Amino acid sequence: MFDHLEKGTVADLDFVLLEEARSEHRFIHRWPEPEHRRALTDPACHYVVGRNKADGAIGYGILFKQDDGAVELRRIVVNQPNKGIGSAFLKAVLTYCTGALQAQRVWLDVYEDNSRARHVYEKLGFRETPKRLKGDDSATRIVMEWRGP
Ligand SMILES: CC(C)(COP(=O)(O)OP(=O)(O)OC[C@H]1O[C@@H](n2cnc3c(N)ncnc32)[C@H](O)[C@@H]1OP(=O)(O)O)[C@@H](O)C(=O)NCCC(=O)NCCS
Fold first, then answer.
1. Lower CB density within 10 Å: C or N end of the chain?
2. What pTM was estimated for this model as a whole?
3. What is the pLDDT of residues 109-123, one digit of tens each?
């Protein structure tokens, strides 16, 4: 269960690295620890961690605030998918974006075959844009965006 969101710090790295090591999270990019440590010192980069009182961290997200005021949601992961936790956490992440980060637009890219994530994004108001990305793995990623109230 998701309870509340906190800004992530270096103290959350064990959790982040543990999640990124899990093979079932096959749709996410993974960074080695030094890359996370560098990102945590980047003023444009914001880690957010979902917590619940009983279990501690239940998910994390990595956000980048852009010069144009928009936020890129670079990564979002929960440790127990498909139990409603990610939807609740993402809702809180969007509130964090419009509040603490004062963003009216949030965008992300998602592998086209990550149908669960795409469903959750759509459900929370993200819309597909015509933009498609292709990386070294040659898989197609769809760019989606969300606009605040
Ligand atoms: C993406 C992620 C954060 C979503 O969080 P979650 O806790 O799994 O999502 P929820 O349980 O809140 O909701 C899942 C929804 O997807 C639906 N769903 C489950 N499997 C599905 C599938 N294969 N295709 C489409 N929809 C699916 C569920 O029915 C549910 O829909 P509902 O809320 O309308 O009933 C989580 O799955 C995750 O961490 N995945 C691994 C990392 C990842 O892929 N991150 C996104 C990278 S862009």
1. C
2. 0.97
3. 999 999 999 999 999
